[in-house]
Recover the amino acids of this structure.
C-alpha cells in the first residue's frame, strides 16, 4: 500500500498512463541524453539540424511523470542549451496534446518561448493550453497557445500554425528552434478529435525548416512525440520530417504528383513481427477528397481564427 501511494505521488501508479517498470530510470535518462546530444550537435556547429525521434516527451514535470512521459527530454535539452550556450530558444510543439510540461517549466523564463498548437484542453488531455496562458512575471509574453476546435481540418490548422510561428519568430528572434513532432492530430489517430490529413505533416516541417534558415542560421533540433496510429500515420509523418530536414530529392516528386505518389515499394514488404490489422497506405499523402467533409467546417474555422487572434494579442 505504501509503495503504491509513493508511485502515485510521482505519477507512476501501475494502472495510470505512466506505470512504473524495471529500468525506467535508465531508459528515460538515455532518452533525455539523446535529445541533449541532438542539441549539442547543433549548438556546437557540427550540424545545422538534428533529429531525435525517441524524444519529445512533453508532458513530464520536474517532480512527476505524466501522459506516457517520465522525464521531459525537451525541457532537459532546452535547459542544456540555455546553461551551456545562453541561446534564446523557440520551442514549437505540433503534438495534438498541449505541451504542458515544457510550457510550465519555462513559464517565467523570457529567453525560452514555448508555442504549442493542439486540440483545445476543453476536450483533450492535459486540459490546459488556453489562449490566456501567456507566461508569467519576466516570462510574460514568451508563451503562445493555439487551441484548436475538435474536427479541425488541414486548411484551418495550417493557417493558424503559419501565422503563429511567423509572428512569434519575428517578435522573439530566437537563436535556435527546438520542435516537437507528435503526429496525433491526424484524423486516423485514436486519441484526439482533430481531423487533419498527412498534408500537415508535409507542411509543418517545411515551415519550421524555412523559419530556421531565416531566423536561426539553420539551427534546428527536431524531436518525436505522440502518435498512436502506428501503421498508417507515424511512419509516413516522421519519414516526411526526415526527408524535409535533409532536403531529400524525393520531396520534389512528393510535392508534384497526386497524393505525393506511391510509397517506396519496400514499405509494404517490411517483415513485421505483428501484422497490422488495417490496410497499409500506398501513397505519401491522403486522398482527402474521398473523406466525408466535416459538418460545421466554416464555424470551426471561424472559431479557430478568433482563438488565434486572442492568443496573439500580446505578440509584438
Ligand atoms: Zn500527443
Ligand atoms: Zn536546412
Amino acid at each position: 500500500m505504501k509503495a503504491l501511494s509513493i508511485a502515485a505521488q510521482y505519477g507512476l501508479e501501475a494502472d495510470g498512463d505512466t506505470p512504473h517498470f524495471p529500468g525506467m530510470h535508465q531508459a528515460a535518462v538515455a532518452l533525455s541524453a539523446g535529445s541533449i546530444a541532438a542539441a549539442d550537435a547543433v549548438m556546437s556547429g557540427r550540424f545545422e539540424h538534428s533529429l531525435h525521434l525517441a524524444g519529445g516527451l512533453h508532458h513530464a514535470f520536474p517532480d512527476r511523470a505524466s501522459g506516457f512521459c517520465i522525464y521531459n527530454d525537451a525541457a532537459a535539452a532546452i535547459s542544456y542549451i540555455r546553461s551551456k550556450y545562453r541561446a534564446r530558444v523557440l520551442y514549437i510543439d505540433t503534438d495534438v496534446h498541449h505541451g504542458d510540461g515544457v510550457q510550465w517549466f519555462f513559464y517565467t523564463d523570457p529567453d525560452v518561448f514555448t508555442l504549442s498548437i493542439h486540440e483545445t484542453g476543453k476536450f483533450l488531455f492535459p486540459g490546459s493550453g488556453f489562449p490566456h496562458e501567456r507566461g508569467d512575471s519576466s516570462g510574460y509574453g514568451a508563451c503562445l497557445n493555439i487551441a484548436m476546435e475538435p474536427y479541425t481540418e488541414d486548411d484551418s490548422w495550417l493557417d493558424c500554425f503559419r501565422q503563429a510561428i511567423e509572428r512569434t519568430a519575428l517578435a522573439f528572434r530566437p537563436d535556435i528552434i527546438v520542435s516537437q513532432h507528435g503526429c496525433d492530430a491526424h484524423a486516423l489517430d485514436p486519441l484526439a478529435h482533430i481531423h487533419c490529413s498527412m498534408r500537415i505533416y508535409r507542411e509543418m516541417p517545411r515551415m519550421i525548416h524555412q523559419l530556421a534558415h531565416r531566423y536561426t542560421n539553420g539551427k534546428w533540433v527536431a524531436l518525436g512525440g505522440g502518435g498512436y496510429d502506428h501503421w498508417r500515420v507515424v511512419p509516413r509523418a516522421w519519414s516526411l520530417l526526415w526527408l524535409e530536414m535533409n532536403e531529400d530529392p524525393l520531396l520534389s516528386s512528393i510535392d508534384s504528383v497526386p497524393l505525393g505518389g506511391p510509397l517506396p515499394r519496400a514499405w509494404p514488404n517490411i517483415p513485421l513481427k505483428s501484422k497490422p490489422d488495417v490496410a497499409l497506405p500506398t501513397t505519401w499523402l491522403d486522398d482527402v477528397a474521398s473523406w466525408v467533409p466535416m459538418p460545421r467546417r466554416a464555424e470551426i474555422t471561424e472559431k479557430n481564427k478568433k482563438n488565434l487572434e486572442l492568443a496573439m494579442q500580446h505578440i509584438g
Summary: The pocket of zinc ion (ligand 1) is lined by residues 95-97, 182, 184, 226 (CB under 6 Å). The chain has nine helices and six strands. Residues 31-262+278-314 form a domain with the Arginase; Chain A fold (CATH 3.40.800.20).
